[in-house]
Amino acid sequence: MNQNSKFSVRDICYAGLFAAVIAVMAQISIPMPLGVPMTMQTFAITLAAVVLGSKLSAIATLVYLLLGAVGVPVLANFSGGIDKFVGPTGGFLISFPIMAYIIGLGVEHRDAFKGAFPVAVVVGTVVNYIVGVILFVIVAHSTVSVAVSACVLPFIPTAIIKAVLACVLGLNIRKRIPGVKKA
């Protein structure tokens, strides 16, 4: 992203491109018993954060969420609408821009602070889980232990795999695209 506060046409195109990537990856979805599907959204969010950095990936994620909120069928299972944000998976959706921003900060500061990048990936993912679990508990009138069993534990192995793949792929893409500060 450009160093000044204005976004270039290139920045806007990258944000739009990654909003589309998130929308496509959201359609790769495996239904789970308690209503929280396993999707590739978090892979796409992490990939966007690694490639675009904090601000631009958060914007790409917000664009994706705004499209979904107004009813464009970009969310998992070709769904959309504001009701998705107050349902059992709403917390995960709401936390995506925060997740992207945190992971993006890690990639931006990985040379200055050794270990910042992996820590940021873990923290971003944990924030996603925490917000997701909180809203699940509220909406589903569930206990925290049921929410963790439904929303976190089954996803940990794939979350690790998706995070590693998104980071490796993202760092390679980041090196090759013009206009993005090299990590």
UniProtKB/TrEMBL annotation:
Topology class, membrane: Multi-pass membrane protein
Entry keyword Transport: yes
MF term (GO), any: biotin transmembrane transporter activity
Principal location: membrane
Keywords per UniProt: Cell membrane, Membrane, Transmembrane, Transmembrane helix, Transport
Transmembrane segments: 12-30, 61-79, 85-107, 119-140, 146-173
Domain of life per record: Bacteria
Subcellular compartments: Cell membrane
CC annotations in GO: plasma membrane
Family affiliation: Belongs to the BioY family.
Protein name per UniProt: Biotin transporter
Protein's organism: Faecalibacterium prausnitzii
Lineage: Bacteria, Bacillati, Bacillota, Clostridia, Eubacteriales
